[in-house]
Request: fold
Amino acid sequence: MKSVRIIYFSPTGTTKKVVETIAGSLRSEKVDVLDLTPTRGRRYGRLTSDVDLTILGVPVYTGRVPFQVVEALQQMQGPGTPAAIVVVYGNRAYEDALLELNDIVSRIGFLPIAAAAFVGEHSFSTAATPIAVGRPDNEDLEQAASFGRTLRERLEAAGPLGNGQFLKVPGNYPYRERAQHVSSPETVTELCTKCGACEAACPEEAIAVTEDGVATDRESCLLCCACVRACPTGARRVNDVELLTIARELSSTCHERRSPEFFMK
Ligand SMILES: Cc1cc2nc3c(=O)[nH]c(=O)nc-3n(C[C@H](O)[C@H](O)[C@H](O)COP(=O)(O)O)c2cc1C
Reply:
């Protein structure tokens, strides 16, 4: 394997960790990285065809591919080369996200040959409402590495285009509705040092830290909670009653460990 490309969107880093682990186990001479997380990283036209495999990973948001990722991917033209698609979800369910991702990458010109669903610590997980804490853990990452090794063997055995069949993944049509909730984490003024970590962490550039305090554009907020994770003083918090209720429910109903799932052509 000479060259691999990884493409991911990963506000709180779990998807990145899984995709990087898969890529690492391919023992490729070169790894190109397209990080779609910051808005400035999301403008790509035609991708070059000089890679043996593209690994594309996204988190699951309300059972779907995050809307911003759909928009970014639709601006790309895949080079007709094989892709492995990966979704990472917070131990609730991934519903139609893998099917949607498979459809998008096929439409823009990749050849999906394999897919996987991994679990990552839920974006809404906190000390008070823990959900899939520490995932992906060593067990998950070992499975990610094993998936990568299998991909490598398959590609070497079947040649670059796989066996010519379509990849089948779980999911239903029509895709489930995207749940929408306009809100954002808030800043506890007394705890905030105006260090700017929240502003730097926000993928949507929705946060502005000034001498006067922290302003958040709620319309642009994805609720990804990257700002909450990045805040060194615990000043950035979700305070929205509806979201806190969801976090409490997920924490009490989604504690049974779900394992990674794999799908191959
Ligand atoms: C707005 C939003 C919606 C989410 N919806 C789901 C969901 O439907 N099912 C689930 O299991 N996890 C869900 N999650 C959790 C993320 O999929 C999970 O935390 C993932 O690991 C985040 O990836 P990242 O660390 O790469 O950002 C959601 C997270 C957010 C922010």
